[in-house]
Amino acid sequence: MNCRYHPKSPAGNYCSKCQRGYCSLCVNQRGGGNFCRACGGACTPLEAFAPSEIVEASFYQQIPATFAYPFKGNGVFMMAVGSLLFVLVNFISLFSIIFWVSILIWGLTVGYAVLYSQGIIQASAQGDGRGPEWPDTGGDMRSALLGACFQYIATSVFCFFPLILLLIFADRQQPWVYWCTWSTTVLGYLYLPMALLAVGIFDSIGAVSPTVIVPAIFRTPVAYLTTLALQALLVGLATGLEMLISMMLPFPFLPGLVSSAFSLYFLTVSVRLLGVFYHSNRYQIGWVNHA
Length: 291
Known about the structure:
Low-confidence stretches: 48-54
Shape: globular
Strand content: 5-15%
Number of strands: 5
């Protein structure tokens, strides 16, 4: 991990409030400790970039605890506020007669979810299990949220770019197009979680490069496929619950509120899994000397 404000400098300090790493120039030293210049929070030294002699729980041993992670710290309050926020945003967008206003609202909402997810990934990657924190917007909320939304869209487009090309240019009457479409779809879904993890760790869209992603996948195939299987299960549960809630709660806005709460819960567990996967396999993945 490099310093937030000095990308070429390695981060030696981690602020749990900002959920970012900082170099020595970006912290204040007083009373024998380091404090974040951006928010004033106490910083903890990042672990040395060498295997620790402390025996850590394996990735598989930590999986059950990820389902309790959303309830730690500010998690419950954040999920409640987030659910209300998403319902309110959807309500406003329904009455927006200007297309670009609806797009802007959607972009801000996605950006908030991305910043929230990246905060969990970065904290989990450092072994921090204290629970979700509020997303850090760096003072300019609109720019931060729209920037995070663009980062997510760009990452997704890169992962599914071969599929997009097929859908646009290929002759769908040809038999090979069907198999290529399925193949590129599967490869895109295999690539996307690791790409999102890399972007979250490096805080750069350049991290989607195959030279970063492909070796990481091949170095941790079993743990990574386990993570993907669990995330697929979470998506299935979220979809099924959303359908069930809509049938059981035929009241205005209430199904959306409950569904949003469950969606935020499953999102939190899913990105926590990615962060725990990285922390448990960081030396095999090989980013530890660069992150």
